[in-house]
Design brief:
This protein is an alpha/beta fold. It has 14 helices and 22 strands. The protein has helices at 24-28, 59-67, 152-159, 162-187, 200-207, 231-234, 256-265, 301-304, 345-358, 384-408, 424-427, 430-435, 452-472, 486-492; strands at residues 5-10, 14-18, 47-57, 74-76, 80-89, 112-118, 122-129, 135-142, 193-198, 227-229, 243-246, 273-279, 283-288, 293-298, 319-326, 329-334, 342-343, 373-377, 380-383, 415-421, 446-450, 475-477. Helix 7 packs across helix 13 (452-472) and helix 10 crosses helix 14 (486-492).
């Protein structure tokens, strides 16, 4: 047997051992390195730099990176394998761990419960004392399915093959099991019930449900209802009486994470009209109050998650999360105070706003210099395509809210609060989102609400059946694409015009 090779990751300071010929993709995915295109070599987001030693790489992709202005030390991890000891520079990809400790209303119960937010990119879970609502321990991890595609569509494509679906199902169940064992080992308390929330695709992949109906228009599913399990059903070494529920989806791409978000924001009990916007891997919207709540999904997620942006990345270490002007000069903030590796969704919004203010782009998003991109800092630029991707994404969100209000017979003036959910909300500069027309409401109505999926999942630990039955009957899913006049509204919302409002 060949001797193990050492792979050192900097600045993490981690030393791994692996067999010669092992693909770097197999080694790195567990440490948060992203493979948004599923390892096809098309997105170029898994770049690593060789500090010492060498890796065996496809010459074609070495040439591609050099053509993009990178020196010969750079490689695509997804197209490389190790054949000697090597030291690699990687960005520290620890995701923002949304272990939210926000207070919430509850009726005391007994024992312990586990709330799980199963995200496309990140998994967060909390063990809760049901007698007082206190969080005993929390854990978070990148979703290991990321290596098969960071965005929903890539993951659906992989799961269209029955073998791919089976593998993704087993992978996520095993990973969640390991996280749960770690929590129990840390605290010794066994949860008597487990609530899982996530988007519709995560629901299907955990349950092993065919995703084919989600891969083509009209993107519908008839199998998104609540799934109940015992521990042995999912291969978890827990007492048989442990009740496990994956809460139901609300529509094709609107999952139980949004159901949980409705609970967390109090929309289901509010007499006043509210809106919830979740700009995660997908873009989901809810508008309504205790009488009726309309929900819809948009194709905005990939732009804000960085998948469709030339140097895009999630909000992790190395991402430019903010761009601003200081003494007429462009400045920026990098998560983790590290060397900038790319730009995340909040930075994208800021950059578009700043360049619009500087007159470098016009209200249609056109770069007025005629160049292919605008430099933010050395090695990081916003291209013309990036700006258009943002315009498409922001128009989808604004159009969705406009349509849901129209169906309710209401106007934007009737909405009292707009909740911005998820990790995106931690970094977003609300004023820039307003200036560019992503959010067409006054700033005083905007509430950054954190991980509403996790908060709602904890609420469901206490009154699962009551919440589910009382809320779902008052929620209606709307397919935006089939709404009469959708295209006209979408086009009208495309301008980067701060004079826009939700009633135009």
């Amino acid at each position: 047997m060949s001797a193990k090779l050492k792979v050192r990751l900097e600045p993490l300071g981690i030393v791994l051992k692996s067999n010669p010929g092992t693909p770097l993709m197999d080694i790195l995915h567990a440490y948060g390195i992203e493979f948004p295109c599923g390892g096809k070599g098309t997105c170029h987001n898994c770049r690593v730099r060789i500090l010492s030693g060498n890796v065996d790489s496809d010459p074609l992709y070495k040439g591609v990176l050099q053509a993009e202005g990178m020196d010969s030390s750079w490689r695509l991890a997804c197209k490389s394998s190790i054949d000697q000891d090597v030291t690699l520079e990687v960005a520290q990809q620890d995701a923002l761990m949304l272990a939210d400790n926000t207070s919430f209303p509850f009726e005391p119960s007994h024992g312990y419960g586990l709330a799980i937010d199963l995200g496309t990119s990140t998994i967060v879970m909390q063990l809760v004392n049901l007698s007082n609502g206190h969080i005993l321990v929390a854990a978070a991890s990148p979703n290991p399915q990321i290596r098969y595609g960071a965005d929903i569509i890539s993951r659906i494509t992989y799961a269209l093959d029955p073998a791919g679906l089976d593998m993704l199902c087993r992978l996520i169940r095993e990973h969640l099991g390991k996280m749960i064992y770690g929590i129990i080992k840390h605290n010794t308390q066994i949860p008597r019930n487990i609530i899982i929330v996530g988007n519709t695709v995560m629901h299907h992949l955990f349950a092993g449900i065919d995703v084919r109906s989600l891969s083509f228009f009209p993107f519908e599913t008839s199998k998104g209802g609540k799934r109940k399990y015992r521990a042995n059903d999912v291969g978890w070494d827990l007492p048989l009486e442990t009740a496990i529920s994956f809460m139901p989806a609300l529509g094709s791409f609107v999952g139980s994470d949004i159901l949980a978000g409705i609970l967390a924001t109090g929309m289901d009990t509010s007499e006043e009209l509210m809106a919830l916007i979740d700009l995660g891997t997908n873009g989901e919207i809810v508008v309504g109050n205790r009488d009726l709540m309309l929900t819809a999904s948009t194709a905005a997620g990939p732009a804000f998650e960085g998948t469709h942006i030339s140097q895009g990345m999630r909000a992790v270490t190395g991402a430019i999360s903010g761009v601003y002007l200081s003494n007429s000069r462009v400045k920026f903030h990098v998560i983790g105070n590290d060397k900038p590796q790319g730009i995340c969704g909040s930075g994208l919004i800021d950059a578009v706003s700043v360049f619009l203010h500087q007159g470098k782009i016009n209200e249609t998003g056109q770069i007025l210099s005629g160049e292919s991109g605008i430099t933010i800092t050395e090695g990081i630029k916003l291209t013309q395509k990036d700006i258009y991707e943002y315009i498409l994404a922001k128009s989808a969100i604004a159009s969705g809210i406009h349509i849901l209000l129209s169906i309710l017979g209401k106007s934007g003036h009737d909405i009292k609060k707009i909740f911005i959910a998820g990790g995106f909300g931690y970094f977003i500069t609300v004023s820039n989102a307003i200036v560019t027309g992503l959010i067409e409401f006054p700033e005083e109505k905007i509430v950054k609400s954190g991980n509403t999926a996790l908060i709602g999942a904890k609420m469901l630990l206490f009154r699962e059946e009551d919440y589910e039955k009382s809320i779902i009957s008052r929620i209606r899913h709307v397919s935006l694409e089939t709404y009469a006049g959708f295209q006209d509204i979408f086009i009208r919302k495309m301008n980067l015009d701060k004079k826009h409002n939700v009633d135009d």
